[in-house]
TrEMBL record:
<dbReference type="InterPro" id="IPR001959">
    <property type="entry name" value="Transposase"/>
</dbReference>
<protein>
    <submittedName>
        <fullName>Putative transposase</fullName>
    </submittedName>
</protein>
<dbReference type="Pfam" id="PF07282">
    <property type="entry name" value="Cas12f1-like_TNB"/>
</dbReference>
<feature type="compositionally biased region" description="Polar residues">
    <location>
        <begin position="405"/>
        <end position="414"/>
    </location>
</feature>
<dbReference type="GO" id="GO:0003677">
    <property type="term" value="F:DNA binding"/>
</dbReference>
<feature type="domain" description="Transposase putative helix-turn-helix">
    <location>
        <begin position="5"/>
        <end position="48"/>
    </location>
</feature>
<keyword id="KW-0233">DNA recombination</keyword>
<feature type="domain" description="Probable transposase IS891/IS1136/IS1341">
    <location>
        <begin position="165"/>
        <end position="279"/>
    </location>
</feature>
<dbReference type="GO" id="GO:0032196">
    <property type="term" value="P:transposition"/>
</dbReference>
<keyword id="KW-0238">DNA-binding</keyword>
<feature type="domain" description="Cas12f1-like TNB">
    <location>
        <begin position="306"/>
        <end position="372"/>
    </location>
</feature>
<dbReference type="Pfam" id="PF01385">
    <property type="entry name" value="OrfB_IS605"/>
</dbReference>
<keyword id="KW-0479">Metal-binding</keyword>
<feature type="region of interest" description="Disordered">
    <location>
        <begin position="393"/>
        <end position="414"/>
    </location>
</feature>
<dbReference type="GO" id="GO:0046872">
    <property type="term" value="F:metal ion binding"/>
</dbReference>
<dbReference type="InterPro" id="IPR010095">
    <property type="entry name" value="Cas12f1-like_TNB"/>
</dbReference>
<dbReference type="GO" id="GO:0006310">
    <property type="term" value="P:DNA recombination"/>
</dbReference>
């Protein structure tokens, strides 16, 4: 099995290198925005979108042209990589996985990627990495990088520059040490409930930071725009954003590691996180109902980072030789596991489940997790209603073509 891994370190650039990194990130942003503007213009004039090769040709012209001579000072590959990113953003948009590509703003994900491993040298014993047009850059060496280097991304987060080194290595097909299977119900009040009865509380660090953020945002709104105090307030907001990101990452990693260590098979609901967070806003002509209430819900959905959690769980399970099965989430919170009765009235409150047909009671989220588990068992037995992600099928069970049996009805009926 091939294992892909990322190693992230803080860079310790000298002043000259830091200025250059800022310029390179700026050049990439410029190229991305210029190419996006061009594509938009072509679209409005009814012309066909330029392909990657066409954009690269234009990039060469921009680099050699009189208008933007500074582009020639930035390394070529990262600039081309930016055009690839734009291509991918368009592809994701057409596949309905993402919104239409947006223009990049300064200070928002300032980064650039070196895609060619031949141009990168990693000197771990001296804690330094060689990058084209930057030379040797020192980094805070906190762990050993294993595998062969594939590409390197340099990014700014808050005030610090980081390097993320992607590697690949061949490892033996692992066998998961555990034999258990568990169902998971993702919640809003609690982050998740397991069919084993365990409840995972959301990260409180996030809530605390959120309040800090709100306070800092109010403080900034009182300052005179572009004044020194305004700039200070803005920098503070960015620092809080960075801390929120760290706290969230930390929580998601700890949780996904623990679950992956304990269970060979994890059954989750195939939540369309993007749709859930989109529907509430509605459109100008057709504003979403309960926008306020829903945006609260959506915010906590995004805060809790379910999509990222699933991604982590999938790769961690793959590494351990385990598996993640995603099942249709429909009715998992309304169905009675005792008699199979499906009714909205089964769940009158957020916390309790009480079947109106047979009187079975349970903790509502644990109950839902048990329904998810049942759907997972059905999938394992004969290939039921599983929905692997098209672009990230790692670790998801491949749906097998087979006649549905009794067991599948649980999965396909809900
Ligand atoms: Zn019942």
């Amino acid at each position: 099995m091939q294992q892909f891994q990322a190693f992230k370190f803080e860079l310790r650039p000298d002043g000259q290198q830091e200025r250059q990194m800022r310029r390179f990130a700026g050049s990439c942003r410029f190229v991305f925005n210029k190419a996006l503007a061009l594509q938009k213009e072509r679209y409005e004039q009814g012309e066909k979108k330029l392909g990657y090769a066409g954009l690269c040709k234009l990039l060469t012209e921009w680099r050699n042209g009189p208008e933007t001579p500074w582009l020639a000072k930035a390394p070529t590959h990262p600039l081309q990589q930016t055009l690839k990113d734009l291509e991918r953003a368009y592809a994701n948009f057409f596949a309905k996985r993402a919104d239409f590509p947006r223009f990049k703003k300064k200070g928002q994900s300032d980064s650039f990627r070196y895609p060619d491993p031949k141009q990168i040298k990693l000197d771990q014993s001296n804690s330094r990495i060689f990058l084209p047009k930057l030379g040797w850059v020192r980094y805070r060496n906190s762990r050993k990088v294993v595998g062969e280097v594939r590409n390197v991304t340099v990014s700014l987060s808050g005030r610090r520059w980081h390097v993320s080194i992607q590697t690949r290595q061949e490892i033996e097909d692992p066998r998961h040490p555990a034999r258990s299977i568990v169902g998971m119900d993702m919640g809003v009040a609690c982050f998740a409930a397991l069919s084993s009865g365990e409840i995972i509380a959301p990260a409180h660090a996030l809530k605390k930071r959120q309040r800090q953020l709100a306070r800092a945002q109010r403080a900034m709104s009182r300052k005179v725009k572009f004044s020194n105090n305004w700039k200070k307030a803005k920098a503070r907001i960015q620092r809080i954003h960075t801390r929120i990101g760290h706290a969230r990452r930390d929580f998601l990693h700890k949780t996904s590691t623990a679950i992956s260590q304990n269970h060979a098979v994890v059954v989750i609901e195939d939540l369309q996180v993007r749709n859930m967070s989109k529907s509430a806003a509605g459109t100008v002509d057709l504003p979403g109902r309960n926008v306020r209430a829903k945006s609260g819900l959506n915010r906590s959905i995004l805060d809790q980072g379910w999509a990222e959690f699933r991604r982590q769980l999938e790769y961690k399970q793959t590494w351990r030789g385990g598996m993640v099965i995603a099942v249709n989430p429909r009715n998992t919170s309304r169905m009675c596991p005792a008699c199979g009765h499906v009714d909205k009235a089964n769940r009158k409150t957020q916390a309790r489940f009480k079947c109106v047909a047979c009187g079975h009671t349970a903790h509502a989220d644990v109950n839902a997790a048990n329904n998810v588990l049942a759907a997972g068992h059905a999938v394992m037995a004969c290939g039921g209603d599983v929905r692997p992600r098209p672009h990230l099928g790692v670790g998801t069970a491949a749906p097998m073509k087979q006649e549905p049996t009794e067991a599948t009805q649980i999965a396909s009926a809900n």
